[in-house]
Known about the structure:
The structure holds 3 protein chains of 3 kinds.
Chain A: H1 2-20, H2 24-45, H3 68-99
Chain B: H1 3-21, H2 23-43, E1 49-57, E2 60-66, H3 68-91, H4 98-117, H5 121-139, H6 146-175, H7 180-187, H8 192-210, H9 218-225, H10 228-238, H11 240-253, H12 256-260, H13 269-289, H14 294-315, H15 318-349, H16 365-379, H17 385-399, H18 403-428, H19 444-462, H20 465-477, E3 484-486, E4 489-491, E5 497-498, H21 499-519, H22 551-557, H23 564-584, H24 591-612
Antiparallel strand pairs in B: 1-2, 3-4, 4-5
Chain C: H1 5-24, H2 32-53, E1 56-59, E2 70-73, H3 75-98, H4 108-126, H5 130-148, H6 154-185, H7 190-196, H8 202-219, H9 228-235, H10 238-264, H11 270-289, H12 294-315, H13 318-349, H14 360-363, H15 365-379, H16 385-399, H17 403-432, H18 445-463, H19 466-480, H20 482-489
Antiparallel strand pairs in C: 1-2
Amino acid sequence: MIYYIGAFGLVFIGLYIILTKRNLIKVIIGLNILDTGVNLFLISVGYVREGTAPIFSRGSGQVLMVDPVPQALVLTSIVIGVAVLALALSLAIMLHKHYGTLNLQKVKEQKW
Amino acid sequence: MEILPLMAFGGAIITYLLGKISHRLRDGFAVSVSWLLVVLVAFFYGTQVCTTYYSGFFGLPFILRMNSLSWLFAIMIAMLGALSITFSLSYMKGREKTNFYYLMMLLVNASMLGVVLSGDLVSFYIFWEIMSWTTFLLISYNRGPAIAAGMKYIVMSIIGSISMLIGIFSLYASYGTFDMSGVGAGIASASSGYILFILILFSITFGIKNAIMPLHTWLPDAHSEAPTPFSAVLSGILIKMGTYGLLLFMYVIVGSKLLFSLGSGILSFQYILCIIASITIVIPTFIAVLQTDAKRVLAWSSIGQVGYIILGIAFGTSLSFAGGMFHFFNHALFKALLFFTVGAVAYQTKSRDLNSLGGLAKRMPVTFIASLIGIFALIGIPLTNGFVSKWLIYKSLILEGSPFLAFAALIGTWGTILYSYKLIHNMFLGQLPEKYKNVKKAPLSMQIPMVILSGGILLFGILPGIPLKVINGIGTSLGFESLSVTMGGYTSETGALNIINILAVMVVAGVLVWLFFRAGGKSKRVAQVSSYGAGASVPTDKYHYTAEFYDPFSRMIKPYFRDVIDDFYNWIAKGARETFDHVRHLYTGDVGHYAIYIVLFLAFLILVSLVWFL
Amino acid sequence: MVSPVLLIAVPLGLAFAVPLLRLISRRIPKYIPPVAMLFNLVLSVSLMSSTLKEATVVSIGGWDPPFCINLVVDSLSILFSVLIALVGFLVSIYALDYIEMGATENTEKYHMLYLLLLVGATGVVLTGDIFNLFVFFEILCISSYALVAYLGDKAGVESGIKYLIQGAIGSSLILIAIGILYGMFGSLNIADIASNINSIGSIALFIPLALLVTGFGIEGALFPLNGWLPDAHSSAPSSVSAILSGIAIGVGIYAVARVIFTLFGVSSIFPFLAILGVLTLLVGEASAFKQNNLKRMLAYSSIGQIGLIVFGLGIATYHGISGGLFQVVSHALGKSLLFMAAGYMIYRTGSMDISALKGIGERMPLTSIAFTIGAFSLVGLPPFVGFASKFLIIQSALLKQDVLFFVLAVLVLLATVIEVAYFLRVCQIIHFKEGNNQKKEDAPLVALIPMFILVSLIIIIGIYPNLVFDFLNSAASGLLDKLAYIEGVL
């Protein structure tokens, strides 16, 4: 249960950062925190009390294991998160090159 | 019968392609295709055909239908189309984008044919829409102020189409069919509230196209800014498509018995339509008197004359119906003729301003005579067809005891006389200004349509029995009682109209006048400028009293006859523009705002679903 | 019969081969997307007839559903697949010349990203597993973030980063929803979840539904989630705008539809969907009205069309959903055509302002005719395909004999008036305003051919919609008949 609270806490922190911060780097960090929260949530879904790592090894037999599917999902999700992060950071560099600032309030040429 | 729309549309496309090869080839082809259509339509006289020609549109059957009503409209469409294309041969010389022009003219023709020949509501709508957008493109052809005119037209036309689409679908939802006869059978058993609802929806559409007040504001701009041969088609037949639609819905689908039972006395649908029609006769006629652009006079005049047509049709007796239909026929003839004459004058003098033209009667005699005949028809002088149709309308109004409507019709004629005379005086009579001294006659390809139309006006004026017979056939097929039509007019218990007698009387009177004229002394010819100036010299060019014609009268009525409805629509359009400008400010450009939108939407969804299920 | 897996595998392989092939010759990369998409087109069309009878299910890895990742190829998927392949193919031919213009460096990155976008889109529509949907959806989104900012100019980068932020929020929301669904049902297979969905009380269901609709709706451009769209579609290079407007948002709507209809199947949400659609439509059309920037106007018009599609889907009868799907087709055809034409028009006049388009009808006659026909089709004038699709939607709305839908249908038609006003105004400016009388130079042949293929499709399908109507009907039943879908898979 504590994991769910932690996960949703991270999600809300991430969302809060994206909604209110003006610096682009902070927003990207917020995005990352959001991703992390979601990953944590996914893994917690698969948690089985008193379960061990879901690896079949010789002599493991009828041991209780945590659900491996969410772990696979999370692996994929982390990779996606890294890709998005890389793209975001490179775009941030280019944005700074064009605008000279990372303040999102000032980057408002495309509007209406 | 499928050959008619096929040839019309195919002819349009081939004309466009031929135009890429050679202009002469294309001109010749366009003219021959349009006249061929006239001949083909004439073949179908008296037939009643109904065929399903296409089922590829979601499996809905498209039906082509020819009956006497469609035939009359079709022959008018084909005739006017052919005449306009003939007129365009010289009108379009040396102008740009002529391929596009011919393509659009033929497409408008073809789609109008499709409208009157369709037997089911979907193909009616499809052809109606094609007609609308091709008209829009053609109106905008002239650039400049024509662009705003075209935009006004298409927006109002689309609003009409929306109304029609809603009506068509609601009919489909109630009766399960798009077929006109099927809908007619179904609607015979509907409640009068529902019939009224449907009729009002369709009346909006057809009223916009017909330019009945207060839906007329697109017409003056559109008709004056369009190229003249197309103005002739517009005024002559395109606005009558609205009349066709009204006829279709009032008499063919709903049926005269059901129609007359809608409401009672003053408040009936029919009577309200008559009142609207009479307002449409009076007000635009007087606005026409105030205009100084020749084509604008004709445009407002068209609105007024359409009022006569609607009045005749809506009034409900067989006499008035015949009068209204005959007036539709006549108006096409004489309005097209008048637009052609104005177009010929504009082509030769490059001006449409009535305040500066004058005295062209000697330089362009054929145009002058044609214009004179057209004016006579418009006013309704005996021996022209306009006389017969107006006579029929007056007579039926007076017979049935509607003094107000008759009064409106007669005032309309008074206004018509005023602006018609202004038109012909300012263009042809009076003094010839210096700059127009060398104006040539109109070219042959312009003269031919004018002569044909004038001949038609006189022919049908002297022998109105020919068209009246056809119209009578339409009337009886729609449920009116038959008139006994003779070659020279008609007879009935309340009196007869026999033009041949009138012709005989006028010929005798003319002979007598001529004899007296010969027997009297000769008169001396004087130059126009040799009048007494009390010592001062008479300025030759400024001695021109066509400028500010009707000035005192104009000053009297001008404050009352501003087009307030146009201002009202412009106000609505402006309000809409402001609102839309505010809407787009939602997209502020700040990504924080967008993220807030996302979160708010999510919260809203969750909240709504929680409330829903608790 | 060829396996539908190739629809995803071949373009994916070719996409990754692009940088390798560039080492061989500099000119090869730009021909690879057309080849890949042609292959997809041919394969999809050949699969069309077999999927009309029943859905094809392909299990990857040899496991049985519901334990495996499977592709479910029913007529809805094939419809989208054909559309993606067709538009992708035509736009890639257009891009043969368009991208090379003014390119200062090697352009193989564009072609690779373009192909990856199409792979993502095809994957989304073909898959039957919700996490797989998410993965392909991410491929689609990330490629589009990069493509929007491809030119590296000020506008592109700004739009790209904004698009990225909003899209990333959406992805996270989807992932949370997937987590919740997995926690509730223990399976990731759409059919499996769909068959068990009624066993949970409806209150708990709404949170994942809301999350999924919001997440997919960001890419699918629903109001108010579409703040990124006007910027992205106007700053991207025109071939990218064509693909984004035509295909990417359609795929987003596919995802929303799949979630609502097949996964959840809750019928009380349909009026809400219709209202949301009309709201999107009205906001989109109203915002497009006073635009001066041509591509921004087209972007807002896309929002409007998506609203119309969602309205059609919200009618939730066979006719209504067919209408919505038909509108996806006509929007894809029309909007890609418009963006392709606009691309060269902007290039020739050097400015994105609508007033700069004065008189371009003389300089670029064929392109202007193509633009005009695209505009007429989008507005819904016969005899073009846009009329047929709008006809179907309004007909089904009014057939419902419900006051709400009557009012909504009237609002949709009023939005048409707004569309007419701004689109036809642009057409008038193109053809009937005085230009600078420069010499005639039209778009190059490579660009004109795809435009005119689209024009002929618009006219042919517009006159003879029966060509696609049966297929649309079966696609609609694929969406509505949840049980048939489940049975087909499990």
